[in-house]
C-alpha cells in the first residue's frame, strides 16, 4: 500500500491527506520528525521536506505540489465533477495560485513560525534548536494571521468556494493550514464570520473530520477544534 | 501581446523567459523592482512575487509554477518531442521535484540571499533595507553553493539531462538559477566539471543566449558570463 510520510502539524501533509481522503484512496501513514534529518528519510527526499509519498513499487514523490499534481493526473482526471482541479487552464491556474498562497506564503508568514515556536521547539532536543518560544516571532506571526484571515474572508464572500464554483485543491490547502492554526487556538472566528461559514462547510466533510480527531502529544487543542459549531 | 513582469536577477523570471523562448512565444517584458511593492503590481499579484504573466485579455497568472503549468497545458502539449514536461506522470513528478529544488530550495539557500545582499541592497533606498551586504549571510550562502553544485554535478553525471533523457523544465530551472549566480561570479567551474559540461550544452541554446547578453545596472558580470568556453 502507498505510504505517506507526514507530520500531524505540517499543513502540506494535511493537504495531501485531504486529497487522498476526498478521493477515497487507501494509504498508510508514517510520522516523521523533519528536524531529525534521518538519513533514510533524506534518501527518499534530499530536500528533507514533508510530505513524501512512496507507492507499492517504492517509487517516491516528494512535496505537496508534486504529489497533488500526480494525484490529479492519475486519479482526479477520472472523477468528473468531483475532480479537485478544474478542466480549464485559467481556472487551474487560479486553483494553483491559491494552493501556493496557503501552503507557501501563509506557511512562511504564519503557520511555520507558529508551529515551530509552539510545537516543534517543545519536542526538539536543545542541540537541535528546542527550547522556549521566541515571543518576537510569535508576535509577528500573530499579526500576519489577521491579514491572512481577511484575505480568506474576502475570498469566501466573493465565491461559492475559494477558487470558484467547485470545491478544489485551494479549499483543501486553506483548510489544511487553518486546521493547524485552529488546533493551536490562533484563529479569532468572531472577527471573521465569512471565513467561519466557509470553514464550517469544510468541517462537515468526512475527509477533514477524521483528521480533526487526532491529537498531538503534549499540546491540547482548543475546545471547539473538532466541533461543527464553534 | 502577453506581458511578463520580471526582474533580470530573479531566477523564477528567467525560468519562465526560457520556457517562452524555447517555445518561440512572443512577449513583452516589464521590469519590476519587487521591494517597491507598487500598488498596481500588488493588484496583479497580491503575493508581490515575480514573475507575473498578463495576457491580451488582461488575464493574470502569478508565479513560476502556475505559469509553467499553464504553458505546458496550452503550448507544451502541442510540441511532441520538444515538450518540456514529460507525458508519464512519474517522469512529470521528477521534473517538477527538480524544478522546485532549483527555484525554491536553492533559491532560499543560495540565490535569493546572494542576489539580495549583492544586487538588491545596492538599488534599494536605505529606508527599504538598502545598504552594505551582510558578510555572515554571504558566507552561509557561499557554503551552500558548494552543496548545490555537487548535487547538480551528480545529476549531470547520472543522466543525459537533469530529469532524464530529454531537455525539460528541470534543466531550464537549474540554468535560470545558475546563470544568475554565474553573473555574480559565485560559481567555481573548475571544481564542478560535470555541471560545467551540462551548462555548456545549455549555453549553446538560443533561448539562453539572448538572456546572457543583458546587463544589470551597476553590477558587472564575470568575464566568461556569456562565453561558451569558460
Automatic annotation (TrEMBL), chains A, B:
PROSITE patterns for the chain: GST_CTER, GST_NTER
MF term (GO), any: glutathione transferase activity
Domain GST C-terminal: 88-222
EC number, as in UniProt: 2.5.1.18
Enzyme class: transferase
GST N-terminal domain mapped to chain residues: 1-79
GO biological process: glutathione metabolic process
CDD domains cross-referenced by the UniProt entry: GST_C_family (cd00299), GST_N_family (cd00570)
Keywords (A to Z) from UniProt: Transferase
Presence of keyword ATP-binding: no
SUBUNIT field: Homodimer.
PANTHER family with a match to the protein in the record: GLUTATHIONE S TRANSFERASE D10, ISOFORM A-RELATED (PTHR43969)
Listed name of the protein: Glutathione S-transferase
Amino acid at each position: 500500500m502507498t505510504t505517506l510520510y507526514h507530520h500531524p502539524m505540517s499543513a502540506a501533509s494535511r493537504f495531501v491527506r485531504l486529497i487522498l481522503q476526498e478521493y477515497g484512496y487507501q494509504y498508510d501513514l508514517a510520522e516523521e520528525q523533519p528536524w531529525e534529518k534521518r538519513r533514510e528519510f533524506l534518501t527518499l527526499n534530499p530536500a528533507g521536506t514533508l510530505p513524501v509519498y512512496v507507492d507499492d513499487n517504492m517509487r517516491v514523490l516528494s512535496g505537496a505540489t508534486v504529489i497533488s499534481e500526480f494525484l490529479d493526473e492519475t486519479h482526479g482526471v477520472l472523477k468528473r465533477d468531483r475532480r479537485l482541479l478544474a478542466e480549464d487552464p485559467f481556472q487551474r491556474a487560479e486553483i494553483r495560485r491559491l494552493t501556493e498562497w496557503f501552503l507557501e506564503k501563509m506557511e512562511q508568514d504564519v503557520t511555520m513560525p507558529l508551529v515551530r515556536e509552539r510545537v516543534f521547539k517543545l519536542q526538539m532536543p536543545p542541540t537541535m534548536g528546542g527550547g522556549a518560544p521566541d515571543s518576537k516571532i510569535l508576535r509577528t506571526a500573530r499579526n500576519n494571521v489577521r491579514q491572512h484571515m481577511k484575505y480568506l474572508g474576502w475570498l469566501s464572500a466573493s465565491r461559492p468556494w475559494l477558487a470558484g464554483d467547485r470545491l478544489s485543491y485551494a479549499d483543501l490547502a486553506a483548510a489544511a493550514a487553518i486546521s493547524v492554526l485552529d488546533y493551536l487556538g490562533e484563529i479569532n472566528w468572531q472577527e471573521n464570520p465569512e471565513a467561519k461559514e466557509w470553514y464550517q462547510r469544510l468541517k462537515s466533510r468526512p475527509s477533514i473530520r477524521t483528521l480533526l480527531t487526532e491529537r498531538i502529544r503534549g499540546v491540547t487543542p482548543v475546545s471547539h477544534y473538532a466541533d461543527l459549531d464553534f
